[in-house]
Specification:
Largest sheet: none
Number of helices: 5
Order of helices and strands: HHHHH
Number of strands: 0
Number of domains: 2
Strand content: under 5%
Shape: elongated
Helix content: 40-55%
């Protein structure tokens, strides 16, 4: 891709896009404790496709993984809201009833 700042005389390198645009945007968004790179987008795509309901085989092939375990174990993350929702019905089952006092 030709760089706009150089009127197309020199290419705009992907690493420059990270340094000049993406990483500053991440810092501005409050993401300071993670290193953002192009591989970050692969993880995001894998997670978003999984949360959208795409089957793991489709996501595996789109990301060109050798097997679905890589997709599931490394690239996809659980949705925090769904995890909370899954546990919400369990919140009181391990609470012991109050003891009856004598007298």
């Amino acid at each position: 891709m030709a760089g706009r700042d150089t009127n197309g005389e020199r290419p705009y390198w992907p690493e420059s896009a990270l340094k000049d645009h993406i990483r500053p945007a991440a810092i501005k968004a409050g993401i300071k404790d993670k290193v953002i790179g192009w591989h970050t987008f692969r993880h995001s795509v894998g997670t978003l496709l999984g949360q959208k309901g795409e089957d793991v085989k489709t996501v595996q092939e789109l990301l060109r993984h050798a097997n679905s375990r890589i997709t599931l174990d490394v690239y996809q993350q659980g949705n925090t809201a769904k995890k909370r929702n899954a546990l919400s019905g369990m919140s009181g089952i391990f609470v012991a009833p109050p003891l009856k006092r004598a007298g």
